Amino acid sequence: MIFDTHAHYDQKQFDEDRDVLLASMQAGGIGRIVNIGCDRMASEKCIELAEKYDFIYAAAGVHPSDAVTSLDPAEDEETLAAISRMADHEKVLAIGEIGLDYYWIKDPDQRARQKVWFRRQIGLAREKGLPIVIHSREAAKDTLDIAKEENIRDVGGVMHCFSYPREIAREYLDMGFFLGIGGVLTYKNSRVLKEVVAYAPAESLVLETDCPYLSPVPFRGKRNSSLNLPYVAEAFAQIKGMSREEVEEVTWNNALRLYRMAE
Ligand code: NI
Fold first, then answer.
1. Ligand 1 center to residue 74 CA distance, Å?
2. Which of 71, 119, 188, 259 has its CA 20 to 30 A from that of 1?
3. Cα of 232 from ligand 1 centre, angstroms
4. pLDDT tens digits for 69-88?
């Protein structure tokens, strides 16, 4: 069975067929899914899904692109308090996704706000004893600086959709972090990620879709779902010289350690 460590089934792309699709997961070899929050409302929907389906769990947090939308400090405090309450739910396994995104956000003031949200949510995870799910895009240096200053080594978590070179991977592996690997691994132009997967110990890698985004080849550009993860597992197996079954087993066990699940 495959563990999808990062999905967004709360999003509108699944409104048409969400329940039918989720009902087909077990038969499709997908044993467990963690649905990741991007803002307050999405995090609430993640919890609703986790309450509805045994095999779905949730993460609550504010994505760096959503951290810049409010300019009202009182509203920000309210949002953080809501995320904090959600973190106490028994099926919320992590704070995320949180981090920095300089691809979508160019404005220096907005980037500064992303940093504040990132640090505060690391603090929240520490307080709740939960791991963090980090989103970092074109912000390698600032993410790493904050990661070190905030001692994320003690918090634990995953670098979701890892997109940086080996030297950066080394830094996070040294802090005990997992690297999230998804559909990008199957792309022709993903040389850097393939190098990272070859370099990192299999025990530090987890599978993820980030669905509805980032479908693997041969479905690139179409809506993604966890049912496509076998294509990622296959690419992973080829790079590591492992069987598909070994990949599923090792990444399943890694996901349990990442999210601190008993079995
Ligand atoms: Ni995501």
1. 26
2. 188
3. 16
4. 777 888 999 999 999 999 99
